[in-house]
UniProtKB/TrEMBL annotation:
<dbReference type="InterPro" id="IPR051935">
    <property type="entry name" value="HSDL2"/>
</dbReference>
<dbReference type="Pfam" id="PF02036">
    <property type="entry name" value="SCP2"/>
</dbReference>
<keyword id="KW-0521">NADP</keyword>
<comment type="similarity">
    <text>Belongs to the short-chain dehydrogenases/reductases (SDR) family.</text>
</comment>
<dbReference type="InterPro" id="IPR003033">
    <property type="entry name" value="SCP2_sterol-bd_dom"/>
</dbReference>
<keyword id="KW-0560">Oxidoreductase</keyword>
<dbReference type="GO" id="GO:0016491">
    <property type="term" value="F:oxidoreductase activity"/>
</dbReference>
<feature type="domain" description="SCP2">
    <location>
        <begin position="113"/>
        <end position="206"/>
    </location>
</feature>
<dbReference type="InterPro" id="IPR036527">
    <property type="entry name" value="SCP2_sterol-bd_dom_sf"/>
</dbReference>
<protein>
    <submittedName>
        <fullName>cDNA FLJ52979, highly similar to Homo sapiens hydroxysteroid dehydrogenase like 2 (HSDL2), mRNA</fullName>
    </submittedName>
</protein>
């Protein structure tokens, strides 16, 4: 976890004992239980366990949210702020290129645009701004509020709900499925400003597009 969250992240984590106890509970289930998606805390609650401080590396300290569970994104967003895992890791502004150039970033946005639909817009309702540094860098937007959706270079016509800053290489990797947004965020490769719940929605959209990128 140090690699993902930096020094001190262990205070927001639990011991591996919780996995062992959850696994033991699963092993006691009948064969028909096979195939179920299980969350360690939930299954242990079903076993009657109420005090989970015994599993905490630092009892009483707020826990790091599980970004791999896509339930209740608003609640996850609040937990991010309460644990100190703020969206922005650095204060300095990334250097942006003055104009777009043909390349992997432009091709990525072209494919993204071809994947848009009214259903995607209806399910997302957000405008994303990407501040990219490096080759093919610059400011790009993904508008998932306007009818049919839209992408483009520069600023969107309306204010962005989420601003994401990263290198062009990481951007392409993220949209092609080679870099998980959660990992990029936790390792500092991705900086986020704005509505975290809507940022999580974008990750779901990326998963749908990975096959085409």
């Amino acid at each position: 976890m140090d690699m993902l969250g930096g020094p001190g992240i262990e205070s927001q984590c639990r011991k591996v004992d919780i996995i062992a106890d959850a696994a033991y509970s699963i092993f006691q289930k009948p064969k028909s239980f096979t195939g179920n998606f299980v969350i360690d805390e939930n299954i242990l609650k079903e076993e009657g366990i109420e005090n989970f401080d015994v599993y905490a590396i630092k009892p009483g300290h707020p826990l790091q949210p599980d970004f791999f569970l896509d339930e209740y994104p608003e609640a996850v967003s609040k937990k991010v702020e309460s644990t100190g895992a703020v969206p922005e890791f650095k204060e300095e502004k990334l250097q942006l290129q003055p104009k777009p150039r043909s390349g992997a970033v432009e091709e990525t946005f072209r494919i993204v645009k071809d994947s848009l639909s009214d259903d995607v817009v209806k399910a997302t309702q957000a405008i994303y701004l990407f501040e990219l540094s490096g080759e093919d860098g610059g400011t790009w937007f993904l508008d998932l509020k306007s009818k049919g959706g839209n992408v483009g270079y520069g600023e969107p016509s309306d204010q962005a709900d989420v601003v994401m800053s990263m290198t062009t290489d990481d951007f392409v990797k993220m949209f092609s499925g080679k870099l998980k947004p959660t990992m990029a965020f936790m390792s500092g490769k991705l900086k986020i400003k704005g509505n975290m719940a809507l940022a999580i929605k974008l990750e779901k959209l990326m998963n749908q597009m990975n096959a085409r990128l």
